[in-house]
Design brief:
Layout: H1 22-36, E1 41-42, H2 43-50, H3 57-68, E2 72-75, E3 82-85, H4 87-94, H5 101-112, H6 115-123, H7 131-140, H8 146-163, H9 193-203, E4 222-227, E5 233-238, H10 244-266
Antiparallel strand pairs: 1-3, 2-3, 4-5
Helix pairs in contact: 5-8, 7-8, 9-10
C-alpha cells in the first residue's frame, strides 16, 4: 500500500503527501528517539515502538510521512531494512530552549519539505485561503482525489502554525490528530499525558478536579485541553515547552492518584 494518503475507491493515485500532521510526526519521532536515540533500527522494531505491526498500512503510511517531512532516512544495511532519525529530526527534538528561533526555523523547514506543501505556501505567502479554495486547488491544479484533497488541506492548515508564526494564535489544538483511517492505523503506544489521563477517566465513574495552581506571570508557552466522558473540561498549562521528562513525571503522578482511588474503592470508601 502506498505510504501516502490515498482515496479508498480510486484507480488514480493522489500526489505524494504525508497523511499525518507535522506535530504527530514529531511525536512518532520522539517515541523512536526514546528507544533508539540516533542509531539505526530495523523497521520491525520501529513498528513496535509505534504500536503497529510491520506489515500494517498504518505503519507504512506513518513511515512514509516521517520521510516526507525529512525526519526519517534509510540506513544502509545488508541484514534488512533499517531506518534512523535524520539530523533535522534530532535537532528539533533536542532543542529545548524556550522560544528558540533555531527550532522554529527547523520546524518550518520540515513543514515545507513535502513538495506540495512548499508549492501551497509559496502560492499563499500571506496565509492559507479558505478550505474550499485550498481543496479546489489541490483537486484541479495538483491532481488530488476529492477525499484526499480534503485531508491534505486539513493537514496543511495544521502545519501552517510552523510556517507562518502569525497563525499561532489560531493554531490547531490537536484534538483530531488521530490517524485519518481507523482501518489503516491501529492504536499506537500511549506515550503522552493526554492518553494517560483519558485512560484514567475511562476507568473511573468520575475524576476529581485537582486544586488550581497559582497563575504565573510569565508567558504561557503551551496549553493542552481534553474533555472527559462526563463533559468535564481538563486543561493542562505549561509555563514553558514541556519535555519528555515532564510528561513522565505527570504520568507517574496520575498513576499514583489512580492507585489511591482504587485503594479507597477497595476499602469501601466513597
Amino acid at each position: 500500500m502506498s505510504e501516502t494518503i490515498e482515496p479508498r475507491k480510486s484507480k488514480e493515485r493522489s500526489p505524494n503527501f504525508p497523511f499525518i500532521s507535522l506535530d504527530v510526526a514529531l511525536q512518532r519521532a520522539q517515541a523512536m528517539y526514546s528507544h533508539e536515540r540516533r542509531g539505526g533500527a530495523p523497521t520491525v522494531a520501529v513498528a513496535k515502538h509505534w504500536g503497529y505491526s510491520e506489515t500494517s498500512s498504518g505503519f507504512k503510511q506513518t513511515l512514509g510521512a516521517l520521510k516526507n517531512y525529512g525526519l526519517l532516512v534509510d540506513e544502509p544495511s545488508s541484514s534488512g531494512r533499517m531506518v534512523r532519525l535524520s539530523d533535522l529530526a534530532v535537532r528539533i527534538l533536542l532543542d529545548g530552549r524556550p522560544d528558540s528561533r533555531d527550532r522554529s526555523g527547523l520546524l518550518r523547514q520540515a513543514a515545507l519539505t513535502p513538495a506540495v506543501a512548499s508549492e501551497v505556501f509559496q502560492r499563499w505567502p500571506e496565509g492559507l485561503p479558505s478550505d474550499h479554495t485550498l481543496t479546489h486547488f489541490l483537486m484541479f491544479d495538483r491532481g488530488f482525489q476529492d477525499d484526499t484533497a480534503v485531508r491534505a488541506a486539513k493537514i496543511l492548515r495544521q502545519n501552517e502554525v510552523h510556517v507562518d508564526p502569525a497563525s499561532k494564535d489560531d493554531a490547531y489544538d490537536g484534538e483530531d490528530d488521530a490517524p485519518l483511517s481507523e482501518a489503516a492505523a491501529p492504536p499506537v503506544r500511549r506515550e503522552g499525558l493526554l492518553d494517560i489521563a483519558q485512560d484514567v477517566v475511562n476507568q473511573l465513574p468520575s475524576y476529581p478536579r485537582a486544586s488550581p495552581e497559582p497563575i504565573r506571570s510569565e508567558k504561557v508557552a503551551r496549553s493542552e485541553k481534553i474533555i472527559d466522558p462526563n463533559g468535564l473540561d481538563v486543561t493542562i498549562t505549561f509555563s514553558g515547552e514541556p519535555s519528555q521528562e515532564t510528561y513522565e513525571f505527570l504520568a507517574d503522578y496520575i498513576e499514583l492518584r489512580l492507585k489511591r482511588l482504587q485503594r479507597k474503592s477497595a476499602s469501601g470508601q466513597t
